[in-house]
Design goal:
eight-stranded mixed beta sheet, four-stranded antiparallel beta sheet, mainly beta
Length: about 300
Amino acid sequence: MSSRRIYAKSSFSVILSSLLCLAGTMWLIAPYQSVEAALLVTPRRIVFDERTRSKEILLVNRSDKKATYRITFEEILMKEDGSFEVIDKKQNQGKYYFASDVLRYFPRQITLEAKKSQTVRLLLRKPKNLAQGEYMSYLLFQQQPPEDLGTNIENINKPQTDQLGIQMTALFATSIPVIVRHGQISSRVALENAKVVQEEQEITDDKGKKQKIIAEVLQLDILRSGNSSASGNFHVDFTPNGSKKSYAVGFNRGITVFHPLIKRHYKLTLRLEGVVLKNGKLHVQYKKRDDKTDESREILAETTITL
């Protein structure tokens, strides 16, 4: 999982008369968009195991302008619906294990010219008597306002008298999970309450026209136990009654239940392509994801739905 946000900074000026004007700045939160058009961060997840002491992250400025990013840790928890919330570290110290307590990184701020790249290095420093378990924090890359950002009336299009002028500048931010695994760790997964429901969805056709359809959607709960997160890929196959042939109708990679969350509600829109979900069995497998390749490995949990 990664978290992506966009903030917008507005420069505004209000002309009170032809002789008097006020200028200032304010922060606005812009609607969610993908940040990868501006900044490429790879890998999208960092995992330290017992043998790992350092990691590198590559940042690539994919835009046509120079950009500066401030790098900080933030603490985030996953909620049952799969969304995330930022928590206050001081108020939750001792309640959760934070990777930011055992990691150092540099640099803390970088400036990237257009189309250029730079690496950020993380170093693991485990104190003595560190409790075994999984430690996690998020590394946040927050774009800083450009030096030439206009903050007064001379730098923006002059509005007419008694009118409000606003100049919007989007500032991008993205964060990636950083996980430290120490000592004996394990997780167990079960799938419960699996069912297929019909859901109205809006799609865009090849001509760019939006239309509403009724989609078949798999819904289930992922239950996690143990002292570490569980991450896997979903494979969904349908086998008609009396047939030995199965049809792949669903796949999703990298679905994670982060520790300490114990239950996550999950849904997957099935891709039928001529397959009718009737008179047969839907087989759902949650397979362990390889940390390095993202490929599926052994089955962590599975369930079958009779249709």
